[in-house]
Amino acid sequence: MGRGRAPRSVVVTAILAAVVALSALVAVRLLRDDGTSAQTSVHDAGSSSVTSGVDCGEGPCQAVARATVGGDPVELLADSAGGNGRFQAGASVLEVTVTALGGRLDVNSLSCASGAVSACLVQARQESATIAQLVVNRAGTWRSVDKPYYSSAGVIRLDDVSGDTAPEVVVVQTAPVLARVFALDGSALGCTRRYTSVSQLRGWPEVQLNAGDLRACA
Predict the structure, then answer these.
(1) Which residues of 88-101 are buried (b: 16+ CB within 10 A; e: fewer)?
(2) 3 state DSSP class of 163
(3) What pLDDT was estimated at residue 37?
(4) Is 157's pLDDT higher than 60?
């Protein structure tokens, strides 16, 4: 007698078993993918992550922007509307003064520079201008410089203008058109000559200056 087909009940049972096994594998893969995606999303889009233990106003802070300075991570925190900002570096949390002045923080509000002395700028738009707060790391301690910076041209940046391996603060203004340079302690180092347009500043809008560009501010 030749080989016959397997009974229908056996075939159905085998198919069901295969479907169940495949469903289990798919479920496991989806769970793994969900965990990876969530971790990547928090890292790439900091505004979606909530920071426990630190309050911004009446609710928990959200991470708006992140940076690494001298190998150490720093975070810019705010409430859901970008207000009530905090600057966090390790266990150190500093109040962000630009939000107290009406500015709102976003992913572009944090810029940092490493050097002999490291520093970060916390910037916010205020109508058509930009206001910024300087935070400086000296001997492992972060402190805020009381003086706020204001640019009617919307450009405030950190750059090693003097060549001493520590950054300075470059502030561009439009009336008159020039750039002012400040040391990390807030003292004025000088100004560029006057221009007829901000686009004449070298590297605009990533303005690139050196010590030879500076003169006494009129």
Answers:
(1) bbeeebbebbbbee
(2) coil
(3) 25
(4) yes
195 DSSP 8-state letter:
B
Residue 169: strand, helix, or coil: strand
Buried b (16+ CB within 10 A) or exposed e, 149-159: bebbbebbbbb
The reply to whether 39 falls in a domain is: no
Residue 181 in any domain: the answer is: yes
Tokens of 56: 């911004």
* Structural domain contains residue 15: no
Per the domain annotation, does 30 fall within a domain? no
* Cα–Cα distance measured from residue 217 to residue 178, given in angstroms and rounded to the nearest whole number: 10
Parent domain of 153 = 46-213
Residues 122, 76: Cα–Cα separation, whole Å: 8
- How many whole angstroms separate alpha carbon 61 and alpha carbon 99? 14
- Name the token pair of 142: 């972060």
pLDDT one-digit tens code per residue, 17-32: 443 343 443 333 333 3
Q: Report how far residue 130's alpha carbon sits from residue 155's, in angstroms, rounded to the nearest whole number.
A: 7
212 vs 25: which has the higher pLDDT = 212
Total domains, the chain: 1
Give the percent of the chain with pLDDT over 90: 65
Taking 3-state DSSP, the helix, strand and coil percentages for the chain, each rounded to the nearest 5, stand at: 25, 40, 35
pLDDT tens for residues 84-121? Answer: 999 999 999 999 999 999 999 999 999 999 999 999 99
